[in-house]
Amino acid sequence: MKNASTETWVVHGGEITQATRDLAPPIHPASTFERAADGTYPGKHMYSRISTPAYEQLEDLLRRLEGGADAQVFASGMAAGSAILQALRAGERLVVPRAMYWGMRNWIVHFASAFGIGLAFYANDDLNDLEAQLAKKPAKLLWIETPANPTWDVTDIQAASELAHHYGALALVDSTIASPALSRPLSLGADFVLHSATKYMNGHSDLVAGALIAKEDSDFWQRVRFARTHAGSVLGAFEAWLLTRGLRTLFIRVRTASSNALRIARELGRYSGISHVLYPGLPSHPGHGVALKQMEGGFGGMLSVRFRVGEKKARDVAARLKIFKRATSLGSVESLVEHRASIEGPGTLCPGDLLRFSVGIEPVDDLLMDIDQAIEARC
Description:
Layout: H1 6-11, H2 53-66, E1 70-74, H3 77-87, E2 93-97, H4 102-115, E3 118-122, H5 127-136, E4 141-145, H6 157-166, E5 170-174, E6 192-195, H7 198-202, E7 210-214, H8 219-231, H9 237-247, H10 250-268, E8 274-278, H11 288-294, E9 302-307, H12 311-320, E10 325-326, E11 336-338, H13 340-344, E12 354-358, H14 364-376
Parallel strand pairs: 2-3, 2-4, 4-5, 5-6, 10-11
Antiparallel strand pairs: 1-7, 6-7, 8-9, 9-12, 11-12
Helix pairs in contact: 2-9, 3-4, 3-8, 5-6, 12-14
């Protein structure tokens, strides 16, 4: 497999190195490891919070997927994002997008205030606004989320990363929605990639995990590693195994979901009660041109719609859907729908008339039939 493509490596779950020649990687549940008589660790590992063979094959797959120098897995996507924030020092400045995953946004605002980190917001799709924020005052890190949850704004990763570097900042991309099946931010100039691996990387609604991949080793990356080790936000051995299993079908799942989502986005445009279909794969989307440039193989399985008559219609449609399950999360094999404003609660930036769809891998005609009966019904 030495010269095989990354996709083939992922399908096989990495190189088979075990003496028993397992096609499925084994689970390594040990929390501690024996020292040799001289006090050294011939097996390389001391304690699983620091390092464990449960991560080795998985992190190598993640590194290969993103084309990075190193990777770390975490107990959740939030834990991965928190480790990045914990690596920042008091007095350093963070620049983040206005539209981004609500849970992470809330945590960033709280963390920045509590730990003396400067914070500035920029419009996701406005490079002029981004440059203005970077130019105001030195920043340590630029945070990019693209496509951005739940309105799917698109940020030009290459241009934004170049601006960050010009002003002395590192660039991180939350690429959860695109996944490495569609986009590789490190090849576009980013320094770090973050994933809520719960979503597309695993894809089966049975695991919570996070991942960070670095383009190269650095002092900041070692600070991130320190945060994971000493804050203890580590992934369990079984969860690491589940994530490796999920990754093996990543490309085929994401491609199917992306194809389904594009078809659905096109069909949703014919409903008079819908005012906006938000999907980067549509030529009408403001970020379509940038998405074409930096996404390959599709535009992802996430889309949102806004209803002309407001929040009640959105909620009623969600309640009438049968195949689309009303549940939090995204990126799994089954299709989900969520009225995000009510989930996010007070202070949400999400419009009340918006429904977010995570399109799965079911036959697309079944999904279209479900949407049609829910929208056309007299709610």
